[in-house]
Write a structure and sequence with these properties.
about 140 residues
């Protein structure tokens, strides 16, 4: 089932970029990011309430809360930079550079999470990086 959600994530991420590029034309990139964040906040809480998971908030430990907050800060900074890049450059070039996050994320997973480094993972990360460079240059 995870593959379905991953594919939907990729589809919606691609759609997000195209819709953002259209919507950001006459809007400051920081303001556009803030508007997007509010919409995401509302949608996320609606899903939490629809699924009845709001009671789980009391069970979140300090460590989880800290790292979720840090993840939120990183996501916010990523969005601010991404929207600014979209405003300044063509979406067809911004998106591949943004997807270098895949290779960077894999490297961080190996270093921080101590996940197993395999030749296939290294090759895949290298191909993603090479593909992004081909698309941008």
């Amino acid at each position: 089932m995870w593959i379905l959600y991953a594919l939907l994530s990729a589809f919606f991420a691609a759609l997000t970029s195209i819709l953002a590029k259209i919507g950001i034309e006459q809007v400051n990139s920081n303001l556009a990011t803030a508007i997007r964040a509010v919409v995401i906040l509302i949608v996320s809480w609606v899903v939490v309430f629809i699924t009845g998971k709001q009671g789980g908030i009391a069970n979140i430990g300090r460590k989880s809360l800290l790292f979720l907050a840090l993840s939120g800060i990183a996501a916010g900074l990523s969005w601010l930079c991404y929207y600014r890049a979209l405003q300044m450059g063509p979406a067809s070039k911004v998106m591949p550079v943004d997807k270098l996050s895949l290779a960077i994320g894999m490297a961080l997973a190996f270093i921080v999470l101590r996940e197993t480094v395999t030749p296939r993972a290294v090759l895949g990360g290298a191909l993603v990086t090479a593909g992004a460079l081909v698309l941008v240059l």
